[in-house]
Amino acid sequence: MSIPQSTYQELVTLSSEELSAAEEDDNIDEYPKWQQDMIIKAKEVINFDDYLLLPSKFDIHEYHIIEAFYCSVVDDKIRGVFWIKSEVEEFSAALKMPSI
Fold first, then answer.
1. How many CA atoms lie within 13 A of 68 on its CB side?
2. For residues 54 and 1, is the Cβ–Cβ distance under 8 A?
3. Phi, psi torsion values for 88, nearest 5 degrees
4. pTM of this prediction?
5. 3, 37, 31, 25: CA torsion to nearest 10
């Protein structure tokens, strides 16, 4: 997904097939009309620097987000509650594991 930097008003979601067709310069007449429009948009996204690539699910690290939040909590009492809750959840998960 990409957003044009100049306006930040358009979100473009493209399939890997549309991106591949745009990169390979496939004959878009072989595609349905709705997909032809998306391939043209894919070419625009590829060829211009006006679009920002949004992070994929592999670019977002949930642990680091949670850790940063935990470290931002100033009150030690509240931080302790988070710590105890995570320890209890880990212990509960271990209890649910099938025995070997």
1. 5
2. yes
3. -65, -40
4. 0.50
5. -60
Q: Is the pLDDT of residue 1 over 90?
A: no
Cα→Cα distances 16→11, 49, 58, 59, 85, Å: 16, 19, 16, 18, 41
Contact 43/23 with Cβ under 8 angstroms?
no
Per-residue three-class SS string for the chain:
CEEECCCCCCCECCCHHHHHHHHHCCCHHHCCHHHHHHHHHHHHHHHCCCEEECCCCCCCCHHHHHHHHHHHCCCHHHHHHHHHHHHHHHHHHHHHCCCC
The mean pLDDT value for 73-79 works out to 80
| CB 35, CB 42: distance < 8 Å | no
